[in-house]
Amino acid sequence: MQISELINKQKDFLSYELQGGFSQLATQCADCMGSTSSLNDLDELLHAHMKKCLYANLTYVLDRSGVQISSNVNKTQILSDFQGQDLSDRPFFNKVDIDHPFYLSDAYISGATLRPCISAVHAIYYSDVLIGMLVFDLELNKLPLLEQKIGSDDFRQIKGDPEIRSNLFNQNRVQSAMDQSIDTVHNIAKELLCGLGVFHLKLHYSSSRATVWTYDDPYNYRIHVLDEIINPNICLLYPKKSYPESAKVSPEQINQVLDHFKKMRFMDENLYLKSGSLNIMNGMVGLSFSCDGNHYLSTEEFLANFDKIYK
Known about the structure:
- The chain is of the alpha+beta class.
- It has two domains: 140 residues, PAS domain (Beta-Lactamase), CATH 3.30.450; 154 residues, no CATH class.
- The chain is built from eight helices and 14 strands.
- Strands 8-14-13-12-9-10-11 form a seven-stranded antiparallel sheet.
- The longest helix is centred in the first third of the chain and has 31 residues.
- The protein is elongated.
- The two termini are 29 Å apart.
């Protein structure tokens, strides 16, 4: 599932969870606005709700033209200084009507808290006439979000620095120290991935270093310079591990990926591989080229389409 689809699914879930409570409060706001009650009563109503709301940091009410008629109300304060401001240019304005009374905005960085938040808007109707909008700013980290598995096997191509791309044919690959020992580096890389507990390895060919992540310590990575990555003694640093049954990449595919890395490193004097990575647990290959472009794709797709894409 694409990232955009996962985000839309999350927003649909939040809308389902939030709309009922906001609908009840909007009805209460309509009673205040449609009667002889003062705006102070509206502020007190909002404040009472905010004290019970776990995930909101601010609420306010606009009239039908987008002018704020309530105070800015948070859990501890009723701030009347904001009454009368015109918020009709906000992205959520004109997003609600009688057929679509509830709207959930895209996430954004709050100007007040400088943290990610999202705005929920509910239409306020009185005698079937739109008279205003109830707005809540919700803190993302406190919302009851749906747990979703984010896929990582889709092909992604990311363009790099335009300045580097524009000068691509004015530069030539310079033989690095790792290039001169690439077979030794790849042999040791295979050993690390196949039997020594490394699940993610990135080879920086241009700068002659390697970065590795291990099963035993996945939150920290280790950087090895060339003298270390071409020396078999490096294998003494990592205890022997059985190849994980849950790996998405087979040992044979590791060999094939590294062989293709070598081909891409030397395939052209202008367009060539600068660094390549392989994660055997999620099955992803990462490629960074001299044009500053980057490709991320599954190992299976990389191996199946190598001759079409990279030759």
